[in-house]
Amino acid sequence: MGEMPMSKIHEILQFTNHVIQGRWFSLFASFLIMAGAGATYLFGTYSKEIKSSLGYDQTTLNLLGFFKDLGANVGVFSGLLAEITPTWFVLLVGASMNFIGYFMIWLSIAGKIPKPNVWLMSMYICIGANSQNFANTGALVTSVRNFPQSRGNMIGLLKGFTGLSGAILTQLYLALYGNDATSLVLLIAWLPAAISLIFVYTIREMRVVNQPNQLKVFNYCLAIAIVLALFLMVMTLVERAVSFTHAAYVATATVACALLFTPLLVFVREELLSVFRKENPPRVPGVVVVVEKEDTNNLKCLSFNDIFLNKPERGEDYSILQALFSTDMLILFVATFCGLGTSLTAVDNLGQIGESLGYPTTTIKSFVSLLSIWNFFGRIFSGFVSEALLVKYKFPRTLMMTLVLLLSCIGLLLIAFPFNGSVYVASVIIGFSFGAQLPLLFSIISELFGLKYYSTLFNCGQLASPLGSYILNVKVTGPLYDREALKDLARRGLTRSSVKELTCIGNQCYRQAFIILASVAFFGALASLVLVARTRKFYKGDIYKKFREQAEATEAEMASTNNK
Fold first, then answer.
1. Percentage of the chain with pLDDT > 90?
2. Which of 99, 258, 427, 503 could bond 370 through an S-S bridge, CB–CB 3.0 to 4.6 Å?
């Protein structure tokens, strides 16, 4: 066979460069980063290891859960950093924090270092969890700006992969380390950091252009993601029923990784089609596709009237202070406090809920995995379905938020009043409603307050979540659980000093706490309904009109440049 002509090699290299520099490859890199950014959802898997190895009671463990939620949801620093530094720096900082935080936790529970104080463990888990905000800011915000007319689909996919990451990381750690929860912490220390380092220069903001196949490409990605989720769900259930060999775990993890990389084939195909259509020819010198950071002088102080009185119309670019001091953001804060606060509390206590109701360890792990997978379906559903309903029927996302919060009330009540198998159903409902809230929150913020300061605003929007988690988890659920556990010890004639680990067994352990949580979630639904009324007129309009016009202007400019 003859050698390949140099011209052919040059074309292949040129096309490869075109793919790597394009929006689709940047999106693929974002998928991978987000698929590794959900380590916080595995807390229910390794929290028992922390509790037993360090001798904590449930209140102390819930305190660690609060600092995890605090780190995971206080992303203002990452947002502000993204306003003044390039995306690669944001991802690099996040990778460093991820490794440092979780590696120190692994050293602690593996006995590699002396037992740390509770405040030190709280700091470790807060740092590790906070790293996911840098992945969110770097990957999610950039992708939304690159595909502004499909933001619901985009956020649903990206947060969906984050929701799946718990199940993906579980399969990987079983393949690499076996059934060892301590090694799971080691995996989530190095793997997400490594992914961010590999793609640190790939993810960047680019000029927006219209592509006719864009929705079809997202639907392909949706199909692939659903297949991946179903595969993980089936394998999770099978692994609980059948004893797997190490080779079987390796095979399962390999298939999961292959499905995770399948969107790359779709994106390469789309880039080929775009070249053939001559709608997006390979980039040549002089065609600017990367968006530079705006002048940081835009982060200027505003007068009292500008902040509180002379605000832009909904959908226009609000300043950070204008958005934070708006009535709409206040209502979102209340709804997030109630919705995500109750959901995070349920997620963090799921392992102990299963234990209190007498489920075996393997079944409890199934609850955690089911919650992670249905968390994914909630994110995908709220992203794609809310986008379709919005575009076709002008159905407001705020109303979708109300319905999701009402659904979460049902899941919380199933734990308050358990029956045989009810925790399976509760895991699905809570996972679905928890997952659905985040894409809706992020989409609503981008639609009401614009994209100019979205890096900061979407991180500010979830600040209520750790506050809700602290009050509802540390101050309500933990003490109520410990009180029931002490009653159980007293009935057996024992005291707290008689046992290393404070454990409660029975339906009463979480009943009172979850009745309170269900009531709080219902109040959040009512608050969300107020926002529905306030934004009804806005959602009846064409909220994507200006982005279509910007894309058309960019296409005309790029066509003019390429013709010179």
1. 40
2. 427
Nearby residues of 134 by Cβ (< 8 Å), 6 or more positions away: 75, 78, 81, 90, 91, 93, 94, 95, 97
- The H-assigned helical ranges of 201-245 are 214-241
pTM given for the model? 0.81
Q: Give the DSSP letter of residue 296.
A: G
Out of 23-27, 35-39, 287-291, 385-389, pick the least confident. Answer: 287-291
Task: Check residue 531 and give its pLDDT.
Answer: 96
Q: Which of 179, 174, 193, 197 is nearest to 102 (CA)?
A: 193
SS (H, E, C) 105-151: HHHHHCCCCCCCCHHHHHHHHHHHHHHHHHHHHHHHHHHHHHCHHHH
Q: Please answer whether residues 451 and 326 qualify as being in contact, where contact means their C-beta atoms are separated by less than 8 angstroms.
A: no
Both structure tokens of 397: 């996302």
> Alpha-carbon distance 38 to 50, whole Å?
19
Judge whether 152 and 218 are in contact, CB under 8 Å: no
Residues 454-480 have pLDDT tens digits of 989 988 888 888 788 889 988 999 899
Q: Give the mean pLDDT of 227-239.
A: 87
Highest mean pLDDT among 253-267, 316-330, 343-357, 495-509: 253-267
Residue 538 · residue 328 · CB < 8 Å: no
**Per-residue b or e along 441-472, where b marks 16 or more CB atoms closer than 10 Å to that residue's CB:** bbbbbbbbbbbbbbbbbbbbbbbbbbbbbbbb
Which of 5-14, 288-297, 441-450, 492-501 has the weakest average pLDDT?
Answer: 288-297
Question: How many other β-carbons are positioned within 10 Å of the β-carbon of residue 552?
Answer: 13
- Tokens representing 347 are 């997620």
DSSP 504-544: --STTTTHHHHHHHHHHHHHHHHHHHHHHHHTHHHHHS-TT
CB 73 within 8 A of CB 465: yes
- Please list, in sequence order, all residues whose beta carbon lies within 8 angstroms of the beta carbon of residue 483, skipping any fewer than 6 positions away: none
Token pair of 185 as six digits: 């912490």
Tokens standing for residue 500 = 């290393």
For the CA atoms of 64, 66, 72, 77, what is the dihedral angle to 10 degrees?
A: -100
- Tell me the pLDDT tens digit for each residue of 157-181: 998 898 788 889 989 988 988 877 7
Rg (CA), the chain: 24
Q: Chain-wide mean pLDDT for the chain?
A: 85
**Helices 511-534 & 478-491, crossing angle to 10 degrees?**
160
pLDDT band at 292 (very low <50, low <70, confident <90, very high): very low
Dmax over CA atoms of the chain, in Å, equals 89
